[in-house]
Amino acid sequence: MRKSIDQINERIRDGNARVVTAEEMPDIVAELGEDGALKEVDVVTTGTFGAMCSSGAFLNFGHAEPPIRMERIWLNDVEAYGGLAAVDTYLGATQQSETRGEEYGGAHVLEDLVAGKAVELRASSRGTDCYPRRTITTELLLEHLNQAIMCNPRNAYQRYNAAINTTDRTLHTYMGMLLPNSGNITFSGAGVLNPISNDPKLRLIGSGVPIFLCGAPGMVIGEGTQHSPAGGFATLMATGDVKQMSQDYLRAATMTGYGVTLYVGLGIPLPVIDKEVVRATAVRDEDISVDLVDYGVPSRNRPTLKKVTYAELRSGSVSLNGEEIRTSSLSSYNRAQRVALTLKDWICAGKMELSLPTRRIDPTRQAHPMHETVKGPRVADIMDKNIVSIGEGEEIRTAAQKLLKGETNHLPVINGVNELVGIVTTFDISKAVVNPGKAQLVRDIMKKRVITTTPDEPVDIAIRKLEQNNISALPVLDPNRHVVAMLTAINLGKLFGKRWLK
Amino acid sequence: MKLLVTFSKGKGKGPIIAQAVRDTGVLIAVERAVIDSSAGEALIEVPDDQCRLVRDTMSNLGANVRILEHGIMFNESECVDCGACISICPRDVFAFDTFFRLTVTEERCILCGKCVDACPHDALTMPI
């Protein structure tokens, strides 16, 4: 048996369509079987509500008198794109205010507009014969704009990695606050309610398909950026009219230490046309697993500690190496449910009819990493190989002499087999001189917890180590913990004038 | 009832908390404390009917004591029920009800402030 999209739309128009949410569907399929569910259910509604950084809106302000071709544009001090000519712009959600930093950004401007608040537009131009005006400042409400068209390049991720942090310091990431020593796990996504998880082969979701976007009726444009369904990370590009949106489903947010993002509510109704749809929409949280990834490793290839399902993540804790670690969702399951229920109401009330894609989205693609022609600087490129080190059993006085002679402020301390065991600085020595106590030897005053780097580490990572620990030098170690060089703040000067900063 | 006790250099010598326990006989639970050579702050919990006695005793010993009426301030209209705060809180102040709405058990809060930064929606603020 098959149902045509026309049959389903006819039932929607007649008010006879049976619409259920993706949360209700698995039990219906379990009870009625696949054939029974296909006969019974016409539409399954999905929903998700979470941080979707790659969001924004095209705005058209109408022409000023005298007219201006805006080249640089700010809305409440948040810069918007000025390359669209005259009075069009694109405002990106993550763009930060030039005056308020990460507490206010493009997402907040959008939320303020939707909430009916006035927003200050500021723009400048070099002035042309046809557009003589050079500057403009005006206060605008959403109703004053000709158009505000949300157009989100990458929304509705099929699922997303869960995050953990095995380092000994708190991390502030786009996955929220990660406590040290695997203190918590964060995750995002609606699991059973996620649109693409209910249509992983992208048979129903594609260009032209009607959706719920931030409370407004919208549409799928096509595949999203970074679309990578081969690995289970399909994404969608979506559009909708900001003027019809609601603050309930469009919320600006700040991930402390990371920046601004927009919480977007997005739902897609799936027409139950055949048994394959029934099977796909019977998916449960238990069936959808994601990698638990260590965000303590600052690399594109972060290690996966284990696979976890949305059922485990949503239970409140995940067991890892015999320990129960508490979980936090960053997306809102309650709002995702409300998106799916609102969509259900719309369809039951005949407000939205369904359609199949006018162009299908490739369900097999794999996004690849960036092609880099110029490698970023590595520690080996700028490190200082003239190292002066000292044995742990030497006298403090010897260390002082070495520091003076070597004209350095940091002495790596090594043991009998040349392994790094500590570090002494001019500060440590001065302290030992001012407070003469029992300390006689370098090992008595050295710092034993040494932050180190390696020759192949990217300089950007080494710089973060210096900043986070408020230090000015890192011993560079080989795999045998032998000191092969030092990286100091002075070496960073070599970056200037070199090709990396051109 | 929770009391926020601040110590400052030069004011009050000796072990103020221990002295207050001995003088009043009240069992004081120290929920959080950061004290170094020059100053410090401790959040303590005492039975409601004895909190004034403890406050006065500690004040006389040189500490600055404030009775905290509130735990973390929760702005429901900013909250979207994501749950980012749940795993951050050391005292299980936050949880979900059966509808995945956030519940806040304010009495458990020790005002460590961790959740303030963890909330993406600015829905949590310190009452001070």
Molecular structure report:
The complex is a heterodimer of chains A (502) and B (128). Chain A has 502 residues and is α+β, with helices and mostly antiparallel strands. Chain A has three domains: 5-52 and 151-355, no CATH class; 62-145, no CATH class; 379-501, CBS-domain (Roll), CATH 3.10.580.10. Chain A is 20% helix and 31% strand. In chain A, the strands form ten sheets. In chain A, strands 3, 4, 7, 12, 18, 19, 20, 21 and 22 form a nine-stranded antiparallel beta sheet that branches. In chain A, α2 (25-40) packs antiparallel against α4 (275-281). Chain A is globular and about 95 Å long. The model of chain A has no long low-confidence stretch (mean pLDDT 94). Chain B folds into two domains: 2-68, ACT domain (Alpha-Beta Plaits), CATH 3.30.70.260; 71-128, Alpha-Beta Plaits. Helix content of chain B is 19%, strand content 28%. Chain B has a four-stranded antiparallel beta sheet with strand order 2-3-1-4, covered by helices on one side. The model of chain B has no long low-confidence stretch (mean pLDDT 90). Classes of the chains: A alpha+beta (502), B alpha+beta (128).
